[in-house]
Specification:
Layout (H helix, E strand, L loop, with lengths): L6 E5 L4 H12 L3 E5 L3 H9 L4 E3 L9 H13 L4 E4 L14 H29 L2 E6 L12 H20 L5 E8 L12 H7 L7 H12 L9 E4 L7
Parallel strand pairs: 1-2, 1-4, 2-3, 4-5, 5-6, 6-7
Helix pairs in contact: 1-7, 3-4, 4-5
Length: 238
């Protein structure tokens, strides 16, 4: 895909991987619709990009996916890419993990991702083409103690992505996932020292590392699809 003048929606765009992807795709000449909860952070990001508009919102709001699609079309005249990226992480041992926080994580990481994905793909089927990239994780491929529920949400994204890919095979609609290992996004800030020592033991990637990979997926020729791109620090022990 040639990215110049294409249009992308990016969820979870106010920081971390979403912010880095916004900068990378902006540099590639894309028009962007950015969404996250923090209007201030979105406004600051958009002010430093060439062609970005913002739609602040709570990702679990059932009305947000269609609002984003409609806004992209009304603002830029088309929609070509959706980077389905918003996510949170709640972890902990069985005895103390916050079950309500776990359930909210499922709403964000799974339910909201499904809503965004299906809404985007319905539009792509009407328009005849498009590209959906879901943010997964190495935790969607391997399990780790104390991350059971989080791993479950990312395993769900992997299954969701691959099933959609198969359903759309032979069309001009592409579905892929990117599965990062440890990335310095702030997700681990509230972890205990022992958990941090483990997760950082193989080094850490920066969000820009993932952003380059997202662009790589998008820029493949039409006869090539990368269904999943696993990206980890070179010394990742998991």
């Amino acid at each position: 895909m040639t990215l110049q003048n294409k249009v992308a929606i990016i969820t979870g765009a106010s920081g971390g991987i979403g912010e880095a992807v916004a900068k990378e795709l902006d540099a590639a000449g894309m028009n962007l619709v950015l969404t996250a909860r923090s209007q201030d952070k979105l406004e600051h990001l958009a002010s430093n990009l060439q062609h970005a508009k913002i739609v602040p919102g709570e990702i679990t709001n059932p009305e947000l996916p269609q609002k984003l699609v409609d806004f992209a079309i009304q603002t830029f005249g088309q929609l070509d890419v959706v980077f389905n990226n918003a996510g949170v992480m709640t972890v902990g041992p069985i005895e103390v993990v916050d079950i309500e926080a776990i359930c909210q994580m499922v709403r964000v990481n799974v339910e909201a991702a499904y809503r965004i994905g299906y809404t985007a793909l319905r539009h792509f089927k009407e328009s005849g083409s498009g590209f959906l990239i879901n943010t997964s994780s190495i935790a969607g491929l391997k399990t780790v103690p104390q991350l059971g529920a989080y791993c479950g949400t990312k395993f769900a994204i992997e299954a969701f992505t691959d099933s959609l890919r198969v359903e759309l095979a032979g069309t001009d609609i592409r579905v892929s996932s990117i599965a990062p290992g440890t990335v310095d996004t702030g997700l681990y800030d509230k972890w205990g020292d022992q958990q941090k020592d483990f997760i950082y033991s193989g080094g850490v990637l920066q969000p820009i590392d993932i952003a380059r990979c997202v662009r790589f997926i998008l820029e493949q020729p039409g006869n090539v699809l990368i269904p999943r791109l696993l990206v980890v620090p070179a010394a990742e022990p998991v």
